[in-house]
Structure formats: structure tokens, C-alpha cells
Design a protein that fits this description.
Aminopeptidase, about 150 residues, four-stranded mixed sheet, about 20% strand
């Protein structure tokens, strides 16, 4: 959680992190995501890559890299590359047809890093989202869909 909060500060959105450590732990234990750690015995966790599965109607099973974070003091030493490579290995091991993630348009060092690793930075796609509040307050024209597990 410390690294997630550090990322939020870096992305100029520190108040956007509303996830509690308890919920984070419960979601991890439920298998909603994997968290790849870069650790050092002396200094603890230095970086993380948080990944989960997605599904593409064109490609089938895909993987999503939600966050790749390295503590500021340890950036530039290869940890980010190793975390990205571990994410790639995880995606391949799950049978994913691609690994997908976003990068902020102002984060040129990250864009350069990803392109240097062979990633395509798609400049013609815009991420879209509706918050939980947006979903709850939306005026639906049709009866609400209730998902059932079979």
C-alpha cells in the first residue's frame, strides 16, 4: 500500500487512493490480482507490479498491468525492467494473448522506457471510466442487470 500511495503522489492524485489495506488484502486472497515484488532483505519491498486478467472479444484472455512502481530512490537501477519482464512472464504463463497497461501522457521517462522494451504506446486510444458513484447514480432506462455465477 505504501508504494501505491507513492504512485498516487507521483501521479498528482494522492486523494484518489480510497482502498483500505484490509480490502486490498481480501481482494488479493480472493485471487483478483497478483502482486510481483522486488524485494531486498535489508530494505524490504522496493517495487511492485500489480497484474490481473482481462478478456478481449478480439483476442480472448489478456493480461493487464495495473501498476508498476519502483521506490524513487531505486529507479534507474533495472528494477522496473525486471518487474515488467516478470509481468510479461506471468501473462505468458496464464495464456494471455497480450499484456496491456496505460501510461500518463506527461510521463515521458516511462513512455521512453516502455517503448525501449518494445511496447507499442497507443496514442489513438483514450481510457474511459465510470466511478462507483457514477454507476450508482446513473438513471438506467432498463431494469438493472444482475450477474449470476453459474
Amino acid at each position: 500500500m505504501e508504494l501505491i500511495e507513492e504512485l498516487a503522489i507521483f501521479e498528482k492524485a494522492p486523494l484518489e487512493v480510497t482502498l483500505s489495506l484490509h480490502q486490498f488484502t481480501q481482494d488479493f486472497l480472493a485471487g483478483h490480482f497478483v502482486c510481483i515484488l522486488a524485494e531486498e532483505e535489508k530494505h524490504g519491498v522496493l517495487g511492485i507490479a500489480l497484474c490481473h486478467r482481462r478478456y478481449s472479444s478480439w483476442k480472448g484472455l489478456t493480461a493487464h498491468l495495473e501498476d508498476l512502481v519502483v521506490k524513487e530512490a531505486y529507479r534507474g537501477g533495472g528494477l522496473g525492467r525486471r518487474l515488467l519482464e516478470a509481468s510479461m512472464q506471468w501473462a505468458e504463463a496464464t495464456g494471455a494473448q497480450r499484456l496491456h497497461w496505460e501510461v500518463l501522457d506527461w510521463n515521458q521517462p516511462a513512455i521512453d522506457f516502455y517503448e525501449g522494451m518494445g511496447a507499442q504506446v497507443l496514442r489513438d486510444w483514450f481510457p474511459c471510466r465510470l466511478s462507483a458513484e457514477d454507476l450508482a447514480t446513473f438513471s438506467y432506462r432498463y431494469p438493472r442487470f444482475i450477474a449470476k455465477k453459474e
